[in-house]
Amino acid sequence: MTERNYGFQISGIEYYTTYEKENCGFVRFDGRSKRIFYLDCYPGYSIKKDKYVVAEGEVPENNDLIEIVSFETDKRPIPTRDGFEYAITKTVHKWKKVDPQKIITRKPLPSEEFTNYFTYPFISDSKYDTAKCLAMYAVSSYVQGYDGVGGIHSGVKIHDKKVTVLNRLLYGIPDEFRQKSSDKYYETTNQNKPLNYQGKSEVNINYLNPKSIYVHIPLFLNLEVKRKSDYLDNLKHMEPLIQAQIRDAVLFKPDISESMKKYLVDRTYEMIEKYKDQSERGFYLDLSSTAAKVSTALARTEYGKKLTKKVIDDGVLTWIDNYDFATKRFGSNINVKEESRLSNAALMLYITLEDTYGIDIDIPLNEARIVSKMSEWEFEGAIAELRRKNAVICPDNYSIRLIPLTLDH
């Protein structure tokens, strides 16, 4: 993991847990133990050595940000080559969960400068919409996709020679987030198959030149690029600040109120209609939760605690402008009829839910499981297909809405 040698490399939450609150940090359990843990200043970045033991009562979850309120300290000397040092164990009597959104108040960079970082290599007039989509990808989203995991998947049309430019740009992603052990994970791949990272909270993948992968954001990166000498120093200078900002941003979970949930549904309809109106499609798009994903990601770039109409409009408009730009240059490689056709299991689930609830009604996922009378794996597979085929809208992680099927079904 990247060392923090200078103040500007330290995120706001790391500063707080390292310098302002001694017994505050992110829970990391000691091996398989569920009562013995350490408090890291950030998940995956350990500089604190004190060990904590919950003797009785409720135990925090792994990666929870907590503050120890009441404890007893036991110091034991341990022999070392140079003499001895103390091993400190703290028996916890009381702890409380801490909301990182209430701690993080200042961004290392204004939001415009954060987004501007992703324009540095490019000359194209459309680079700003592309940069905003890259910025959304960089801060991820907690809203889950058809795979039951948060994050954003991008389909990237790009020449081999320009992949190095994209990779260099993505050095702005913190190193620890590119390790497969990270709960929030980022990867760029040329594999033409879905990557399965179940168990993680957020997974962000750039699929290079995808042929049959469902993605959320289409990106055309065959843009005119500056000479390396004209942008590389700027990237290197900004990387520590970008990384610090991302570490803080991904801790935000912008709230989606009921009114904003309804507004997301309306904007999702617009995106789906735009996609389905295209006779030629250059990529497979899962739009069931894309409006929610790009909006919550955009809110994260602002350190926003809740979604607003302004943020949703900005996120969706950016997606539409980027989609128009990319789709004109992708060409068509999709069988539209085949793409929209549902399997028997997915169609039967749709019909069952339509008979029970109707169209355009919020359906709690836990109720849908019961009504379906399907096995767990059948239900998960059918719901995932309905999402990929844009037969449902998912404005949050807990409910779905059926939308009218096209005649192809």
Would you give an account of this structure?
By secondary structure, the chain is α/β, with parallel strands linked by helices. It has 3 domains: 7-102, no CATH class; 111-330, P-loop containing nucleotide triphosphate hydrolases (Rossmann fold, 3-Layer(aba) Sandwich), CATH 3.40.50.300; 338-402. Helix content is 37%, strand content 20%. The protein has helices at 12-20, 111-116, 127-139, 160-169, 228-249, 258-277, 290-301, 309-330, 336-340, 344-356, 365-372, 376-388, and strands spanning 24-29, 36-40, 51-54, 65-80, 83-97, 153-157, 184-189, 202-208, 214-215, 217-220, 284-285, 363-364, 392-393, 399-402. The longest helix has 22 residues, at 228-249. The chain starts with 11 loop residues before the first helix and ends in a 7-residue tail after the last strand.
